[in-house]
Design brief:
The structure holds 2 protein chains of 2 kinds.
Chain A: H1 2-12, H2 14-46, E1 54-58, H3 62-71, E2 80-81, H4 82-89, E3 94-106, E4 109-114, H5 117-121, E5 123-124, E6 128-129, E7 132-135, E8 143-146, H6 148-154, E9 161-162, E10 165-166, E11 181-187, E12 197-201, H7 202-208, H8 224-237, E13 270-271, E14 273-278, H9 284-292, E15 299-302, H10 304-357, H11 362-403, H12 414-445
Parallel strand pairs in A: 4-12, 8-11
Antiparallel strand pairs in A: 1-14, 1-15, 2-13, 3-4, 3-10, 3-14, 5-6, 7-11, 8-12, 9-11
Helix pairs in contact in A: 1-11, 2-10, 2-11, 2-12, 10-11, 10-12, 11-12
Chain B: E1 5-14, E2 17-27, E3 32-36, H1 43-50, E4 58-63, E5 66-67, H2 73-83, E6 84-87, H3 99-110, H4 119-126, H5 131-134, H6 143-156, E7 161-165, H7 173-189, E8 193-198, E9 209-212, H8 213-216, H9 218-224
Parallel strand pairs in B: 3-8, 3-9, 6-7, 7-8
Antiparallel strand pairs in B: 1-2, 1-4, 4-5
Helix pairs in contact in B: 2-3, 3-6, 4-6, 6-7
The chains are: A alpha+beta, B alpha/beta.
Chain lengths: 451, 225
Amino acid sequence: MLISLARASLWNRKLTVILTVLSIAVSTFIVLGVDHLKNEMKSSFSRTVSGVDLIVGARTGPTNLLLYSVFRIGNPTNNISWQSYQQLSQSPEVAWTVPISLGDSHKGYRVLGTTAAYFEHFKYGQSQSLVLKEGQLFEGALQAVVGAEVADRLGYQVGSEVVISHGTGDVSFTHHDAHPFRVTGILAPTGTPVDQTVHVSLSSIEVIHEKPQRTALSRPQKSLQSEQEHKHDHSSADTDHQHPKEESGSHQHSDNQSEHRVDENLIPDSVSAMLVGLKSRIGVLTFQRKVNQYQQEALLGIIPGVALSQLWQMMGMAERALALIALLVLVASMLGMTTMLLASMREREREIAVLRAIGAHASFVLLIIELEAVLIALAGAVLGYLLLTGVLAGLGEWITSEYGLFIGVVPLSLSTLGYLALIVSLAGVLALFPAWLSYRRALARGLSVRM
Amino acid sequence: MDPVIQLDKVKFAWQDKAVLNIEHWQVEKGQKVFLYGPSGSGKSTLLNLLCGILTPQEGSIRVLSQELSSIRAGARDRFRARHIGVIFQQFNLLPYLSVRQNILLAAHFGRTESVEPDHLQQITDQLQLNSAMLERKAGELSVGQQQRVAVARALFNHPEIIIADEPTSALDSELRDQFVDLLLQCCDRNQASVVFVSHDKSLAGHFDQQQSLSELNCVTKEQVC
């Protein structure tokens, strides 16, 4: 009886009630959305890399190294020499190492030069390996394995031709179009930056950066001036990134070969970073110290898990600010609801007098106003949740492609239910004020209605 | 037989301001009393006292031999639901409920929902409310229809007492006498005593007893004297 009466009374004021429900729905949407976004970002964050014990790069900030080696954000400020790479690889405690070389891009997607070992050792999520959806890994030079998103967005299939551009901007004016790559494999989606990466072999990177006259181009020889421009472009104009340097004179043996018969064993003289797997994880701190105190070169080793949580803490500030704003929006909408209830009290005085006359106790009045508030908040909270679910279902793909965030559906988890319960109980508490006022009035004024 | 309503030495004050002071007043069973009460005569206070919503600071109010101030507020509310039917001058109904729901709401508080399934039909027939009207929203009815529904609701729980507070003030003059006749006729049939409060003396002729509240109430009497 109480519930159907409250429902009917709400329906009687449907316009204000619907608006109030909407305002609560929007704030629920924001509160749940912010929380969900945070959780999803965090999990998407921590699943980007796994199975790697140490990432080693030239000395820079840990965050910077993590960002460019794992997230493909920013650029390496310096490189590791090939000698150091070799030496560290031969350390007794090291099980495997994978070199990675960054600095080129393809239509805005980063190009990662590496070896086949990358696909064997790099893991994401809960130690999941990279899996090919189609085709095979690169075997020789000028072959590329593209991430799922690259293939999807650019419509690539096995056999597609890919021209790599120098630098990492969306628009690059230097294209390595003398050396088009062929897609040999497409990776299955991982939900990590791997999806947005074009993987090529380390030697391919060397090939495309070979000086034009040494790689037997099919196009006419460049003039000295254009060659200097090219060189200039590599060394100083591109200040924000350091590219593995072109081979020096020692690798003349790739001369006079056709572009599809480039030397497999081109050795770079530097790489951007290296991923290290140790024989025993216990030694990771010792090995990290060894890297950081490496005499020949200034190096930095980071433990991915530690660096990830440091980076996350940095982002935690923004996240807390967002959560605070979300809560304030919630409070605003709750105050709106209280205002609505208070404003309706004037017209409801008669209603209350009628209820009192037919034998309702004054606490019935209190209950009914409480119940209405709870019903409004419940409707708003559920609507907000559905709204968020709908929006994520509808826009999830767009968010992924636009921002590289992988936002799953909002789970009806304990924390979500907790938020919904918080919203409803907050409404209940705030409604106590108008409810108590009506209760007092119902007691004092009784059956007489002020006209 | 005990009177249905008996007031003795009742005093009531609002924040130290005396509003009501009644030496003695009683209503016999089956009696229809016209209580003449111009505004300021303590009319609302008396009604609230009779209904058990307010309790007097002094004196005794016995309704159906029950001393109202001796029982708790919740029990007084149940007592009112069960034994007293109240009719206001206007806005007796919750406009967003149907006529049927309005009447059954009273049954809910009087705990009489389950008794006599065709009772609702009888009552509405007596008040010339057709069954189509039962499903309409109370707010859609004319004032005259609403007042008849209010009577039906007031009588639904078989109360011993009907208290009507200016129920005709919103009605046209032709409807007024008609309504009072219908009300009294229905109360007769349901053996309910009536206390009819009004400032319209022209209606007094319908009742077997008339009483001026200003004279009954010593507070206002002193002012007059």
